[in-house]
Amino acid sequence: MDPENDEFGLDSDDDAELLALADDIDDADLIALADAIGPHGTKRKSAEDNGPPPKRPTLDFPCAEAALTQTFGFKDFQLKQKQVISRILGGDGATVVFPTGGGKSLCYQIPALVFSDVDEGSRGQGESGITLVVSPLIALMKDQVDALVRRGVKAATFDSSKSREEYLHTCEMLRNGELKILYCAPERLNNEGFVEQMKYVRGGIRLLAVDEAHCISEWGHSFRPDYLKIARFAREINAERVICLTATATPRVARDICKAFDIDETEGLFRTSTYRPNLQLLAESGKTKQELYPSLFNFLKNNKGATIVYVTLQKQTEELAAELRRKGFKARSFHAGMETGTKTQLQDEFMREEELVIVATIAFGMGIDKSSIRNVVHFNIPSSLESYSQEIGRAGRDGKLSKCVFYVCGEDLHLREMFARGDLPSRESLRSLLQDIFHSTNVSLPVGGEIRTNHYDQARDFDIRLTTLKNTYAQLELTHNLIRATTPVYTKYTYKVSSRYDSVLEADKSPAAAAIKKYGKKAKTWYNIDVDSLMISKLPRTDIIRKLNDLDEGGVIELKTGGVQNVYKITQPLPRTGPAIEKYVDQIYELMEKREQEALNRTNQMLQLITDKACFSRALAQHFGDNLPHGKTECGRCTWCMTKTAIVQQVPPPVKFNFPAFKAVLEHIPDRDDARFLARIAFGIASPRGTKMKLSNHPIFGSMADHSFMGLLRAFTRECTKNPE
Ligand SMILES: Nc1ncnc2c1ncn2[C@@H]1O[C@H](COP(=O)(O)OP(=O)(O)OP(=O)(O)O)[C@@H](O)[C@H]1O
After folding, report:
1. What is the pTM of this model?
2. Which residue ranges does the record annotate as region Disordered (predicted)?
């Protein structure tokens, strides 16, 4: 399996689950949406022309209208942008559920620009504060910032790709009170220095915008424990108000978001429909991919225009693109493993060309703002209805008829099962992890004491995927209230000094400056400072870190951090005995199994959409608690509506148990401690332990991929529970 890594080392499944659609629809929203996705440059009706009266009178902010036209060059607000912006400028928080391309960004960009006008001199020059945007993808942030800067807006990102000069320039703009919008990734909130910096930002954080906010909900399809920290961060930095944005939120997820950020569910939740009348949903089934190739070629021949073909694995993008080129199509492959330059080139080419077919993993599409994508093809099963909606939502943003075809075949199921089952570790692994967390040194600490761990080491040592490991910690924290994550710490602070170093520290009479001067030890070029031992000397650690950051921003030193440790405060006495720990193992494992089942169900729901005897568009809308407009029961366009024949998924026939392959796995891996691990290897699911044992390229890896996973698990469990002879 090719892991599809993005900037944060997330695999394709993670990424696929980042995006999707919304619910709760009313007819007026539908009209507004259909209108809003009209051709670029044509008049777009704003939602309030047709929509229901706003939940409360929309305050008028002429400065917001002025920014819309002058800075962004748009005539009218669309969907519920005006109501949202008015609420934010009025001082309250909001949760915004607009579909992809619905214009969510403007909901925080316009307030960011006009806070200084709304203040009307109540604050001094440069004291209007900033809007901080937490967004999970570096590439998207960069595009947004570039677009803003081109429009003359002072915007920047804090990300690891920035040069030191750029970083210093951003810090200077923050100090001068010039910067309006700052973007960062959620991982940034783990940086103590950053948290401290944001607490003391000039003018304060006027607005915290949380993009892809559905990741905060444990019930969402892409829960990310790091997202839970954003709510706490909002409180710590005293954000004046929060805006949460997502294209996918079931009512339950929306409730979770509002609750986490204290946003009024009645007044502060803004939803619009996701139904796209111009998208034609089609599906076709085949025994094998090979069998479906001619259909795909025909489809592409008869349906010209910019096309995205989604496949699951990186190597599939290359194989299929090559096949399409052989057939005379202008096709390219795209996946996250490619060089950044190549990816940018491909995206630019796709934006320019109207005939290009891009065969891609889900890494392609986020941030692609092309309105004339004519076809979106799924050549493998998408991970969920949410991902499917999100991906097809990229087609036809110009309002013209666009086609979305889903080719399904039995062999895809294995791939999806591989992803779905990859996150569940064995019970033994979970037990070892909890025994490590509740180790005698930790349990003897008093309530309020600190546990320090390293997630990466633990993931490797206990054969648990990082996301699953983080979820386990999140559960100990949120469900069981045993620990509470605090800011992870860097154990290593090193810095290089400028010629001003001595004089600046001499002039600075603060205890922190004195401590840095005293404890900063010069090695060759770099200085080391042990901030933890300074803590022992009774000086608050944060004082030192803040001072180091100040010096860094001022160009007095060049600071580097490293050796991250995850820190948890003990909030209740920890379990000490084997049986007490086992109770947690049971509870957490039960939930993990439920999550695995949910992941498998998501694939089933996806298949049901096309195999049920019902209109695809309606079924999709209903999944999101929606319906078709005007009480319609059929869209009249999808495969079901046109043929009234259900698609039959062709399942591969069961295979005979492959004893030689089974024996080879057992012979190559002599350990009998973990049946699930053996089953994973035979099925072809990567895990930290398998990677450590260099099994991913061994012939036994995936040698029984055509078997049922549960069958393999049973067979290996029998081997592991046999008494040694
Ligand atoms: N009021 C408006 N009038 C016309 N165009 C608009 C308006 N608001 C936003 N747009 C344009 O719509 C496009 C999509 O906007 P934006 O990227 O903010 O959508 P989004 O909801 O954040 O989508 P995604 O879910 O993909 O992030 C952009 O090109 C943007 O400039």
Report:
1. 0.72
2. 39-59
